[in-house]
Each structure stands twice: as structure tokens, then as C-alpha cells.
Design brief:
heterodimer; A: mainly alpha; MetI-like fold; 12 helices; B: alpha/beta; D-Maltodextrin-Binding Protein, domain 2; three-stranded mixed β-sheet; elongated
């Protein structure tokens, strides 16, 4: 049967051999499904494990009380407040800096060696280990700028860490804006900056937000740089301003997992669940904004 | 469209500026008004559960008048003690004193301490010569105070039946750099052990426990074989040893205490033929060979300038607090009442400098003048 269906069998140029090709197709899709199952399965197992360990510890008291050496009374009020403070400050600085850099690189900068040099470096910076940013932040923000070991110093370090991510994503988004839009705007007499403000940026904004989600997700889970900056292991007050001393959720979780008492491992799991909740709610705000803005175009 | 984004951003900016402004204006009052409200919440709860912590002091009112900030950094091993001291100090009435503890490690702690950034440095080993040089250069004088003892547990899997006790000599045979790749079965450690493969677990090179063990057992700090499973997280070591027969590992005694059912504690023979297992008693009287002192280092100048710091250290060394060191939540071995008495006196006299001579620690040296 195979020989019959082969229309070009003589020269061996083309063999239809449909059954075999279809079969190969099935194998390929099966492999794809298997990969997804493995990836998602691992994730779900992890998630299930963490939720199972942490759920008994998750209650209101856990969120409202400070850390304690008695597991029953320990909570992550200080760490939660610290994380929220730091994320707010980080996004506040990183978003405008990142977007404006991207606008410059995409809309204004000419194609010369200098721009290319900057572009290569931004891509490389995205791959620098986070501890390096921590050391940089310690030297510059903590010591040179004399911000001490404050939330502001931590947030600025995080800004350095996430800037490459935001710039790269924002550039992609800006590049995806059809040039016909720019041309139309310019043709009607708008200046370059008007074009950018009224047409390019709004159109690219959903993509920029996606980059911001990625950046925030990375920053919220980082431990190494904040550890170097001097996030505290124990503090019984919530921050009162950007110059307060602080701790953040990953540090608190890390401290609990390294304690010998098993109860604290449960607390750590609960902390991880809460960290995920904070992250997801931050992201859902961004996703909501993105969807709303998508509809307009 | 542009308006939505623009407005959102302006809103965020204004909010943050407001917050920043608030933070700025309240910071002078931070230690006073701001903390008082926050401080009272944990106090009520603390006093309930930790029993008479506040009642015994008799100076709750005195403590309440104190205010200020105390920054502590250093060893993560000492962290649980300083954390407990901070909690109990606030529970005892010092609501307006803001005590924060970080854990940059003993070395990292001294680095900050000698710059004058912290008032107290936690240390799981005595200060080193070069660290003292830095302190001297910066004009920081310190008071060295031992606060507890920590036993190092040598442990194996409960299924490993042939071994009950190891000599320091045998431990050295197993852990010295020369053993790397060569000493791989138990019968190489002692002839009458079976020819079973060893599975070694220990802390990584960044750990103070590693420094102490190599110094004590191998004889040279930092010298160890490298082909073992290393982790900075003692809980990982616990899991490793409890999951593998014929394994051997070492870590802080508190981690054994919390996992007794899945581990087997080995005795250690310091060379005199006596096999000693670590316990409160044997660690305290020095008969267990692998026990180390834990210290806090206090900035002398700051003690004289800050009544709050002075009160905190007094509380740290008081009869009221020192038993907490040995509570299951902290898990170390306390010194004797007499020894603490001497250390209190040392603090009262503000005796500066180290008492460690040629690397030898002797608790008798801390008995004041």
C-alpha cells in the first residue's frame, strides 16, 4: 500500500507515506503534552506541598503580629509591610526610568555604535547575578548616598535589578507599534514628543505593563540583594517612611526555614503562600489594567 | 487612555511623596509616639505567654522611660538569643526602645561593628586579630561578653548500629583534607567497623560551625575534605543524615534536639578514653570536647552614651533572661549563675578587649576583677 501511494517513489524525491507522517505528528504532539504535564505537575506538586504545610498556620494573627520565637505567636507583619513598601517604591522609580530609556532608544537614538553599545549592555545586565546588584547598592546607596540600610536603599537596588527587564520589554512593545501610526501623527503636524505621548506610548502600554509584571515578580522574590543591603532578621516595628529599617517576606521565610523547630517550617510555608498571594494580586491589577487598555485599540 | 495612565501615575507619585513626607516628619518622634502604639500590642501578648517576664523586673516603669535604637548584627547562630532578648526586653516594659537584629554572619557583623554602625555584634567565635585592628583604627572599643555555650553534635542514621562513639582522632581521619577521595569506607576509620561506604554531611565553608569544627578536629581552621554533602542550612543536613544509612554529619546541638527521633547521637572521645555525649551538663562543664562559647560584643562608647543600650545589655545578662538561652525555642546551653555573675561584673566595670589567649577560651577569665 505504501508503494502505491508514493507518487514520486521512483527518484526518492517525495514519499507521501501518510500513515508514517501522521504517526510522527502524533508522537510530536504527545511529547508536547508530556512536557506540559511534567512542568505543570512539578509546579502543582510544589504548590500543593506548600499549601498543605502552610494552611494550618494561615490566619489573621499570622498577618497582624510581629515575629516571635514562639511559633504560635509569630507573624510577618513587619515583613509584609516591608515588602509592600519596597515594591511600591521600586515600581515608582523603575517604571518611568525604564519606559523613558526605551522611548529614547527606540524613537530618538540614531543607529550608531554608541546606541548599539548601550543595547548590548542592557541585555547583558539582565543576566548579571542579583548579588552583584546587592553589593553595588551597598556601596552606592547605603554608603555613598548615606541612605543607610533603609527601604529606599533596598528599593533603589531593586530598581537597578529590574531596569533591564523593563527596558527590554518596553522596547519590544514600542517596536510593535505600527509605523503607520507614527507617520499619520507626524503627517498631521504633531511633534515627535506628541506622537510618542499620544500614540506610541498608549498603544505600547499593555506590553510595557507585561514587562512590569515580570519585573515585579522578580523583585518580590529576591533575597540575596536585600540581604546584602542589610534587611533585618528581627524587627518589631513596621516601617514609618522610606528611610526606615526593614525586612521583607523572602528574608523572613528564609529565617524561618533555617530554624530547627518544625513549627517554623510550617510558618515558612504559610509565608510562601502569602508571598504568592501578594504577587498574584499585584499582577492581577496589572493584568486588569492591560485588558482594559487592550479593548480601546 | 493617556489620561487613565497619567492620572494613575500622578496619584502614585503624590501618594508616595505624602508617605515620604510623613515618614520624614514623624521620624524624630518615631522612637516616642510612633512606637508606643506599636509597642503595646506585642507587650500584652508577650507578658501573658512568657509568664513573669515583665513582673519580675520591678523596673518596668524605669524601662518604659527609656527610648532609642539598638542595632545588632552578626552571627546567625547567636541570632535566636539576641532575638529572644529583644522580645523579652520589650515585653519587660521597654516599649520605646527599638531593637533590631540582622544576621550578616560573624565576620560581616564585626565589619559593621568596627565601623560603629552597630552597637552590639553577635559572634559565634572570638574576634580575630585583623578585625581588632580595624576596630582600633576606627576607635571602637568593645566589651567581650560570653552569653551561652553551643555543643556541636556528631550524628548518624539510627540504622547505623556499629558505631556509638568516635574519638577526635578518628573524626580527623575522616574529615581532614588528606582523606579526600581516599577514606571512603567505615573500616578505614576503625578496623572493626564494617566495610560500608561513608556518607558525609556537614556545613559549607561560609559557616561558623565549619570554622569551629575544622579548627577543633582537623587542627587547622578551614581545612577540610571537600567531597562531602555541604549545606549552609542545617535542616538539609538533618534530612540527609536521617535519610541515608551509614551516614555521618555534624551540626549545632539544637538541630539534633528537634529531630531526635530520626537521628542517632554519637559520643565523642577527646583522647582520654572517655566517651562523652553532648548534653546540657557535659557542654557546660567542658567534658564534651566539641563545645564552643557564643559571644556578644558591645560598643563601649555607646554604652556610656545610651542608657537604653546599657539597660538592654544588663537585661541580656540578668538572671531573669539567661534561662531563656536554654529554652527549647532558643536551644543553647546556659552558663552557671556564678559565671553570669562574673560576666555582669565585667560589663559593669566596662572591661574592654578580648580574653582569648592563643586561641584558648577560658570562662574563668570573665569573672571580673
Amino acid at each position: 500500500m505504501a508503494a502505491r501511494t508514493d507518487s514520486f517513489s521512483s527518484a526518492g524525491e517525495f514519499r507521501a507515506n501518510l500513515p508514517l507522517r501522521k504517526w510522527k505528528g502524533y508522537i510530536f504532539s504527545a511529547l508536547g503534552i508530556l512536557s506540559i504535564v511534567i512542568a505543570l505537575g512539578t509546579l502543582l506538586t510544589l504548590l500543593f506541598d506548600v499549601v498543605q504545610d502552610g494552611l494550618p498556620w494561615l490566619d489573621w494573627q499570622f498577618i497582624t503580629s510581629f515575629d516571635s520565637r514562639f511559633a504560635q505567636r509569630a507573624g510577618l507583619r513587619a515583613a509584609l509591610a516591608g515588602t509592600l513598601w519596597m515594591m511600591a517604591l521600586t515600581i515608582l522609580f523603575a517604571l518611568p526610568l525604564g519606559v523613558l530609556s526605551a522611548v529614547y532608544l527606540e524613537e530618538y537614538a540614531g543607529d550608531n555604535w554608541f546606541t548599539r553599545f548601550i543595547q548590548v549592555n542592557i541585555s547583558n545586565l539582565a543576566g548579571v547575578p542579583s548579588i552583584v546588584y546587592g553589593l553595588l547598592g551597598l556601596q552606592i546607596f547605603v554608603r555613598l548616598f548615606n541612605l543607610n540600610r533603609s527601604i529606599l536603599a533596598g528599593a533603589l537596588t531593586m530598581v537597578l535589578l529590574v531596569l533591564p527587564i523593563i527596558i527590554v520589554a518596553a522596547r519590544e512593545a514600542i517596536r510593535a507599534v505600527p509605523s503607520s501610526m507614527r507617520d499619520a501623527s507626524l503627517a498631521l503636524g504633531a511633534t515627535r514628543s506628541q506622537t510618542v505621548r499620544h500614540h506610541v506610548l498608549p498603544y505600547a502600554f499593555p506590553g510595557i505593563l507585561t514587562g512590569n509584571i515580570l519585573a515585579a515578580s522578580r523583585a518580590i522574590g529576591e533575597t540575596a540583594p536585600v540581604l546584602v543591603i542589610g534587611a533585618l532578621a528581627y524587627v518589631a516595628t513596621t516601617p514609618t517612611g522610606p528611610l526606615s529599617r526593614f525586612t521583607v517576606l523572602p528574608i523572613q521565610i528564609f529565617n524561618w526555614t533555617s530554624k530547627p523547630q518544625k513549627d517554623f517550617h510550617g510558618l515558612a510555608a504559610a509565608g510562601i503562600v502569602l508571598l504568592l498571594v501578594v504577587l498574584l494580586s499585584m499582577n492581577s491589577v496589572a493584568i486588569y489594567l492591560r485588558q482594559r487598555l487592550y479593548k480601546r485599540f | 487612555m493617556k489620561n487613565v495612565v497619567g492620572r494613575l501615575y500622578v496619584l502614585l507619585l503624590v501618594a508616595s511623596l505624602l508617605l515620604a513626607a510623613c515618614g520624614g516628619t514623624t521620624s524624630p518622634a518615631q522612637t516616642g509616639g510612633g512606637n508606643a502604639t506599636q509597642g503595646t500590642t506585642p507587650t500584652a501578648a508577650d507578658a501573658q505567654e512568657s509568664g513573669n517576664a515583665g513582673a519580675g523586673a520591678g523596673g518596668a516603669e524605669e524601662l518604659g522611660k527609656l527610648s532609642g535604637r539598638i542595632e545588632i548584627d552578626g552571627s546567625s547562630t547567636v541570632l535566636p538569643i539576641s532575638e529572644a532578648a529583644a522580645q523579652e526586653f520589650q515585653a519587660a516594659g521597654a516599649n520605646n526602645v527599638d531593637v533590631t537584629v540582622a544576621s550578616s554572619g560573624t565576620g560581616g557583623g564585626f565589619e559593621r561593628f568596627c565601623r560603629g554602625e552597630t552597637q552590639i555584634s553577635n559572634a559565634s567565635r572570638p574576634i580575630k586579630e585583623d578585625e581588632m585592628e580595624v576596630c582600633k583604627k576606627e576607635g571602637v572599643e568593645f566589651i567581650e561578653l560570653p552569653v551561652a555555650l553551643d555543643g556541636l553534635a556528631v550524628i548518624t542514621n539510627p540504622e547505623t548500629e556499629f558505631v556509638e562513639c568516635l574519638t577526635v582522632e578518628e573524626l580527623k581521619k575522616l574529615w581532614e583534607p588528606a582523606a579526600e577521595g581516599k577514606v571512603t569506607t567505615w573500616n578505614q576509620v576503625r578496623k572493626d567497623f564494617p566495610e560500608e561506604e561513608t556518607a558525609l554531611f556537614g556545613p559549607g565553608e561560609q559557616s561558623g560551625t565549619f570554622d569551629y569544627f575544622t579548627d577543633e578536629v582537623v587542627g587547622e581552621e578551614g581545612e577540610s575534605r571537600k567531597d562531602y554533602t555541604a549545606s549552609e542550612d542545617d535542616n538539609v543536613l538533618v534530612q540527609g543524615v536521617s535519610g541515608e544509612p551509614n551516614s555521618l554529619g555534624y551540626f549545632g546541638f539544637a538541630y539534633f534536639e528537634q529531630n531526635q527521633e530520626s537521628l542517632k547521637l554519637l559520643g565523642v572521645d577527646g583522647g582520654d578514653g572517655k566517651c562523652v555525649k553532648p548534653s546540657k551538663e557535659t557542654v557546660n562543664n567542658g567534658s564534651y570536647p566539641l563545645s564552643r562559647p557564643l559571644f556578644i560584643y558591645v560598643n563601649k562608647e555607646d554604652v556610656e552614651k545610651q542608657p537604653a543600650l546599657q539597660a538592654f545589655v544588663n537585661y541580656y545578662l540578668s538572671e531573669e533572661f539567661t534561662p531563656v538561652v536554654a529554652s527549647p525555642e532558643v536551644g543553647y546551653v546556659e552558663l552557671t549563675g556564678e559565671q553570669y555573675e562574673g560576666i555582669r561584673q565585667r560589663f559593669q566595670e566596662r572591661t574592654t578587649g578580648t580574653e582569648i589567649k592563643n586561641g584558648e577560651f577560658n570562662i574563668e577569665d570573665y569573672s571580673g576583677s
